[in-house]
Write a structure and sequence with these properties.
- It is a single chain.
- This protein has one helix and two strands, in the order E-E-H.
- It has a two-stranded antiparallel sheet.
- The protein has one helix spanning 105-121, and strands spanning 22-23, 26-27.
- The longest helix is centred in the last third of the chain and has 17 residues, at 105-121.
- It is elongated, with a radius of gyration of 18 Å.
- This is Nucleic-acid-binding protein from transposon X-element.
Length: 122
């Protein structure tokens, strides 16, 4: 079943959307979002704004940023970390990474380019 995330501006009648039970002749269910407020991070490439299930990019290590799976990393566990997103000295999935800030037209463009590249590989 496809899921969609729709953001609605907070207003006096915003709650009305929860009364909707059909759209274009299809029965639907609308629920409040209960997920995390952090950016989605693929566990293959550790890039943001796409999931592991849809990731078609080369693997990147979350610890040393090299092109291999994190599980295959030969660096000692206590070695210094390098983020594959910002080259900072932390793991790529750290919530404090400066890369996954509020989505901007630039990050939306990056996501679009990612999806176009993934579709070309399929």
């Amino acid at each position: 079943m496809p899921l969609f995330l729709i953001k609605i501006a907070n207003s006096l009648n915003a709650e009305e959307v929860f009364k909707t039970d059909s759209l274009l002749g299809t029965n639907i269910s609308i629920e409040r979002f209960c997920g995390s407020n952090t950016a989605l991070n693929a566990e293959n490439c550790y890039g943001f704004y796409h999931s592991s299930e849809t990731c078609h990019l080369k693997p990147r290590c979350a610890h040393c940023a090299a092109e291999h799976l994190t599980a295959d990393c030969t660096q000692p566990k206590d070695s210094s970390k390098i983020c594959s997103n910002c080259n900072g000295s932390h793991v790529a999935y750290w919530r404090g990474c400066p890369v996954p800030k509020e989505r901007t037209p630039a990050t939306q463009k990056e996501t679009q380019v990612y999806h176009e590249a993934a579709n070309q590989r399929s």
